[in-house]
Amino acid sequence: MIMTTMPTTSFKLPVLPFLLPVLAVACALPMLPAAEPVAVAVAAAPVDLKLPDPLVTLGGEKVTTKEAWEKTRRTEVLELFRKNIYGRAPVGRPEGLKFEVIDSAPDAMEGKATRKQVKISWHGPGGEGSLKLVLFIPNGLNKPAPCFLLICNRPAAANIDPTRAVKSPFWPAEQIVARGYAAAAFYNGDVAPDKHDEFKSGVFKAFDTAPRTGESWGTIAAWAWGASRALDYLVTDAGIDAKRVGVVGHSRGGKTALWAGAEDERFAMVVSNDSGSTGAALARGKTGEKIRDINRVFPHWFNGNYKAFADREDELPVDQHMLAALIAPRVLYIASATEDDWAHPKNEFLSGVYASPVYRLYGLEGLTGKTFPNPDAPVQGGGMGYHLRTGKHNLTEYDWGCFMDLAGREYKN
Ligand code: GTR
What we know:
Layout: E1 2-5, E2 9-12, H1 20-26, E3 39-42, E4 46-51, H2 66-86, E5 98-107, H3 108-111, E6 113-124, E7 127-138, E8 145-152, H4 156-159, H5 173-178, E9 182-187, H6 202-207, H7 219-234, E10 240-250, H8 252-263, E11 269-273, H9 291-297, H10 320-325, E12 331-337, H11 345-360, E13 379-381, E14 384-389, H12 397-412
Parallel strand pairs: 8-9, 8-10, 10-11, 11-12, 12-14
Antiparallel strand pairs: 1-4, 2-3, 5-6, 6-7, 7-9, 13-14
């Protein structure tokens, strides 16, 4: 177990509600003079969240090298997540996966990008299916472009419009292209519907042959599988730098991006935006949405075994910092928003902090020693980024700008 100590930090008033227990302690502490009404310095009390240690194996051995992490502990942790939370995909890249470029326009975005739409289709014992990948590659780069792949969990026409007649800050493709990145996106509902229909449709219908068990995959894992199939295409496109494809998701999409990056190490960067419960946020000590809530409202997202952890967070053999650790040494961005108490920003930040010992095995600092930042003051470097945006649960141009800032500095290394 790790004794967690919340670093000394300062918070702006709008994020105070989730800090009430901390503030009880803070009231006894010296405060900044009243002349500074927006930022209140808070020295938080040490909190013992009893987090499982990512660097101690189930057999009790301490992991001190990246070789031991990769060979033993990483595999163990990944299995624990499959078994207890996200489930096990019955198939990886299926035989006969097909890519069809159904549209190609070299002068999209007023000549600034080449647009492609690619139908990625599969068939399995129970049926077939496909997703449509929308892709803009910057023109005139004279080298393959690094790429951001968005797992879009909002209506496709309003958010990832290939014609660009409708533009949404959720996927600011023009801004992404202007900074020299390819912008790719697919709609998660192409892979599996976001509803509990006993796993009778989408990829479940196509590939589930054995009777379902407590470990069978849920819908988050299915969407993550879809992201990997999109990547299967992207790595074949000469316009894309296959070693620099990041996967991005917001909220349920952010949970999916983390799981996609854990399962598929070809993703060079993982971006979790406001992913909250069973995404970036630690389950232990979490306020807002808890395991009981998420399983009740979204019974299809995770596997059957996860249901047993309602109100029993402490009994999980993992916590979400270990999911973050599975991304190491690749680039990880965790973003939160001040008005997103349901997701619990502080616990999203702490996942990055407590994943950092794994990053350190690779000589990367991650969020080691970092304090919870003020709103709109991103912390970036050492393979990781975190920010707390002012505002609501959403994915915005500000967030995208931060993701690209981190990619720019980390991809140079
Ligand atoms: C909420 C859910 C969150 C988050 C969000 C979203 O209803 O409680 O876990 O995933 O939906 O995806 O926007």
